[in-house]
Amino acid sequence: MADQTNVSSDLIWEICRPNNAYLVKRKSGGGCQFSKDPLNLTNKHSRKYAGFVNTKAVGVLPAEKGGVTMITKKTKHQNRPAANRHEVTFAGNKSGPKVYRGIVNYTAKQNYRADLRREVVARASAIRESSKPKKETPERKMRGAKARNVASTEET
Question: Which end of the chain is more exposed for a tag (fewer CB within 10 A), N or C?
Protein backbone atom coordinates (compact mmCIF):
# COMPACT_ATOMS: atom_id res chain seq x y z
CA MET A 1 0.00 0.00 0.00
CA ALA A 2 1.43 3.39 -0.98
CA ASP A 3 1.84 6.05 1.67
CA GLN A 4 1.92 8.89 -0.85
CA THR A 5 -1.22 10.84 -1.64
CA ASN A 6 -2.65 10.76 -5.14
CA VAL A 7 -3.14 14.52 -5.20
CA SER A 8 -0.31 17.01 -5.47
CA SER A 9 0.14 19.64 -2.79
CA ASP A 10 -0.17 22.39 -5.44
CA LEU A 11 -3.65 21.18 -6.32
CA ILE A 12 -4.61 20.99 -2.64
CA TRP A 13 -3.43 24.58 -2.19
CA GLU A 14 -5.40 25.84 -5.19
CA ILE A 15 -8.55 24.19 -3.89
CA CYS A 16 -8.13 25.24 -0.25
CA ARG A 17 -6.67 28.71 -0.81
CA PRO A 18 -9.90 30.74 -0.91
CA ASN A 19 -11.55 28.97 2.05
CA ASN A 20 -10.19 26.67 4.74
CA ALA A 21 -10.49 26.21 8.48
CA TYR A 22 -7.23 28.04 9.22
CA LEU A 23 -7.89 31.14 7.13
CA VAL A 24 -8.53 34.44 8.94
CA LYS A 25 -9.73 37.27 6.71
CA ARG A 26 -9.67 40.90 7.85
CA LYS A 27 -11.20 43.79 5.94
CA SER A 28 -9.22 46.30 7.96
CA GLY A 29 -5.63 46.77 6.91
CA GLY A 30 -6.25 46.36 3.21
CA GLY A 31 -7.92 42.95 3.35
CA CYS A 32 -5.08 41.03 4.98
CA GLN A 33 -5.30 37.25 5.17
CA PHE A 34 -3.71 35.35 8.05
CA SER A 35 -3.53 31.70 9.04
CA LYS A 36 -4.15 29.93 12.35
CA ASP A 37 -2.40 26.76 11.20
CA PRO A 38 -0.13 25.39 13.98
CA LEU A 39 2.43 24.41 11.34
CA ASN A 40 2.51 27.92 9.87
CA LEU A 41 5.51 29.77 11.27
CA THR A 42 4.73 33.32 10.18
CA ASN A 43 0.90 33.18 10.30
CA LYS A 44 0.77 34.44 6.71
CA HIS A 45 -1.74 32.83 4.38
CA SER A 46 0.63 31.75 1.63
CA ARG A 47 1.63 28.55 -0.13
CA LYS A 48 5.17 28.62 1.26
CA TYR A 49 4.11 28.65 4.92
CA ALA A 50 0.92 26.54 4.75
CA GLY A 51 1.61 23.51 6.90
CA PHE A 52 -1.50 21.56 6.03
CA VAL A 53 -0.55 21.59 2.34
CA ASN A 54 3.18 20.86 2.40
CA THR A 55 4.40 17.31 2.88
CA LYS A 56 7.18 18.50 5.18
CA ALA A 57 6.23 21.24 7.61
CA VAL A 58 7.56 22.56 10.92
CA GLY A 59 5.74 24.34 13.72
CA VAL A 60 6.76 25.76 17.10
CA LEU A 61 4.47 25.97 20.13
CA PRO A 62 5.08 27.05 23.73
CA ALA A 63 5.71 24.34 26.31
CA GLU A 64 5.48 24.50 30.07
CA LYS A 65 8.08 26.34 32.18
CA GLY A 66 9.35 28.50 29.35
CA GLY A 67 10.11 25.63 27.01
CA VAL A 68 9.44 25.23 23.33
CA THR A 69 7.80 22.32 21.49
CA MET A 70 8.73 21.78 17.86
CA ILE A 71 6.20 19.87 15.74
CA THR A 72 7.26 18.28 12.49
CA LYS A 73 5.02 16.68 9.93
CA LYS A 74 5.94 13.15 8.88
CA THR A 75 5.84 12.23 5.23
CA LYS A 76 4.85 8.63 5.94
CA HIS A 77 1.28 8.92 7.22
CA GLN A 78 -0.15 11.77 5.17
CA ASN A 79 -3.69 10.40 5.27
CA ARG A 80 -3.67 9.88 9.04
CA PRO A 81 -3.61 13.26 10.78
CA ALA A 82 -3.19 11.79 14.27
CA ALA A 83 -0.11 9.78 13.26
CA ASN A 84 1.68 12.20 10.97
CA ARG A 85 3.14 14.53 13.61
CA HIS A 86 6.29 14.23 15.66
CA GLU A 87 6.90 16.47 18.69
CA VAL A 88 10.21 17.39 20.26
CA THR A 89 10.23 19.48 23.44
CA PHE A 90 13.14 21.68 24.45
CA ALA A 91 13.18 22.53 28.15
CA GLY A 92 13.02 26.10 29.37
CA ASN A 93 16.11 25.74 31.56
CA LYS A 94 18.40 25.37 28.52
CA SER A 95 20.12 28.43 27.14
CA GLY A 96 18.71 30.05 24.02
CA PRO A 97 21.56 29.18 21.64
CA LYS A 98 21.43 25.51 22.66
CA VAL A 99 17.71 25.37 21.91
CA TYR A 100 18.11 27.11 18.56
CA ARG A 101 21.06 24.89 17.60
CA GLY A 102 19.02 21.82 18.50
CA ILE A 103 16.14 23.01 16.34
CA VAL A 104 18.41 23.73 13.37
CA ASN A 105 20.28 20.43 13.75
CA TYR A 106 17.05 18.42 13.97
CA THR A 107 15.52 20.03 10.89
CA ALA A 108 18.79 19.67 8.93
CA LYS A 109 19.32 16.01 9.82
CA GLN A 110 15.73 15.11 8.98
CA ASN A 111 16.05 16.91 5.62
CA TYR A 112 13.30 19.40 6.38
CA ARG A 113 12.97 22.53 4.35
CA ALA A 114 16.07 24.69 4.66
CA ASP A 115 14.13 27.81 3.66
CA LEU A 116 12.15 27.65 6.91
CA ARG A 117 15.07 27.38 9.36
CA ARG A 118 15.34 31.11 9.97
CA GLU A 119 11.59 31.35 10.61
CA VAL A 120 11.66 28.37 13.01
CA VAL A 121 14.43 29.95 15.09
CA ALA A 122 12.69 33.34 15.05
CA ARG A 123 9.41 31.79 16.21
CA ALA A 124 11.14 29.83 18.98
CA SER A 125 12.98 32.95 20.09
CA ALA A 126 9.76 34.98 20.20
CA ILE A 127 7.99 32.28 22.22
CA ARG A 128 10.86 32.05 24.72
CA GLU A 129 10.98 35.85 25.05
CA SER A 130 7.22 36.10 25.64
CA SER A 131 7.28 33.41 28.34
CA LYS A 132 9.76 35.33 30.49
CA PRO A 133 8.20 37.33 33.34
CA LYS A 134 8.22 41.08 32.83
CA LYS A 135 10.45 43.11 35.12
CA GLU A 136 9.00 46.16 36.77
CA THR A 137 10.72 49.40 35.89
CA PRO A 138 12.23 51.11 38.93
CA GLU A 139 11.27 54.65 39.89
CA ARG A 140 13.33 57.31 38.23
CA LYS A 141 15.68 59.07 40.61
CA MET A 142 15.81 62.82 40.54
CA ARG A 143 19.21 64.21 39.75
CA GLY A 144 20.86 67.57 39.90
CA ALA A 145 19.28 70.68 41.43
CA LYS A 146 15.86 69.07 41.93
CA ALA A 147 17.36 66.24 43.98
CA ARG A 148 19.33 68.74 46.13
CA ASN A 149 16.19 70.80 46.75
CA VAL A 150 14.19 67.73 47.78
CA ALA A 151 17.02 66.50 50.04
CA SER A 152 17.36 69.89 51.74
CA THR A 153 13.61 70.16 52.39
CA GLU A 154 13.54 66.66 53.88
CA GLU A 155 16.41 67.47 56.27
CA THR A 156 14.63 70.46 57.75
Answer: N
Return the closest-CA partner of residue 60 out of 33, 85, 27: 85
Cα distance between residue 40 and residue 104, in whole Å: 17
Rounded to the nearest 5 degrees, what angle is found at the Cα of 56, between the Cα atoms of 89 and 14? Answer: 130
Q: What is the pTM of this model?
A: 0.77
Residue 61: other Cβ atoms inside 10 A = 16
CB environment 102-131: b (16+ within 10 A), e (fewer): bbbebbeeeebeeebbebbbebbbebbeee
| Distances from the Cα of 22 to the Cα of 53, 65, 79, angstroms | 12, 28, 18
36: left (phi over 0), alpha (psi -120 to 50) or beta: alpha
Question: How many whole angstroms separate alpha carbon 99 and alpha carbon 140?
Answer: 36
Each residue's pLDDT tens digit, 94-136: 888 899 999 999 999 988 889 999 999 999 999 999 988 888 9
CB 24 within 8 A of CB 35: yes
